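As noted in the main text, all predictions were made from sequence alone. Below is one such record, for Tryptophan--tRNA ligase.
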Amino acid sequence: MMNDKKVLFSGMQATGTLTLGNYLGALKNWVTLSDEYECFYCVVDLHSITIRQDPAELRKRARNLLTLYIAAGLDPTKNCLYYQSHVSGHAELSWILNCFTYMGELNRMTQFKDKSQKHADNINAGLFTYPVLMAADILLFQSDVVPVGIDQMQHLEITRDIAQRFNNIYGDVFTIPEPYIGKTGAKIMSLQDPTKKMSKSDENPNSSIYLMDDPDAIVRKFKRAVTDSGKEILYTDDKPGIKNLLDIYCTITQKTVEEAVKEFDGKGYGEFKLAVGEVVADHLRPVQERFGQLSKDKAFIDGIIKDNAEKANYFATKTLRKVQRKVGFPDRIR
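Prediction:
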């Protein structure tokens, strides 16, 4: 345990461009957690290469993502923000844990089935063992809690199973992580198909709000957002489009659903969609401005990358050396 705080781990992939869903469902909530937890937030670039990437583009997106972490409010002196690929313990622990994970467990993972269908021409071993690397990510820092959405719960469960299996053999080596589920904004849906989660890989650009979209583009996308039959603005499952827009509006304004429904009582869908778009554009403007400033300060970002990689490696090595000794690897001669 560090500073008597519980440890929290999470990360985002360095692929695509972050959406409003990524921000409201995860990044915005992360900012509030550093006072309570010792937080490790990585830029997940090892996982990213299960799908073929353009090398220069991957490096650019990884740096942009780390910069965006800071622009969104994550203090790099209070949170450890680092590249996954800069901490070799992720890959080393993943190999060891592969030897304590069963094929049947991996065969049951729904994400492998989904991604195999989307990338049928590249069903590689990394895609299959992806959950083991994710387990290594979490267990490497003795994480107590992991922020997860409902669609990631299966990965946390296999992480817990692997850790408990290892502990049953070798003693209390790993902390068994618990899920941390945010209370609001946990799942933001597509603006064009509110039955699907907003995704940075959606082929329809009008489906997602990207964090770097300019204000005019944001408002325009909300104006085009799919709504529902009828005219009333109500928070109900048979109005998924309006429900999604209310979720977005309430998460940003911190108003209750009841307050928002009352505010727009008697107003049309057009007026409502415009209001949501303007609230989102106003909220993202300071994040975008801060991102622009940070992107120009190469020395500052380089310093964060170096210092936080050293911090992450320090804590990762403590766990890795313990695991290596438990499984019987020779001690290193200092």
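The two ends are 26 Å apart (CA to CA). The mean pLDDT is 91. These features were considered when defining construct boundaries for the mutagenesis experiments described in Section 2.9.
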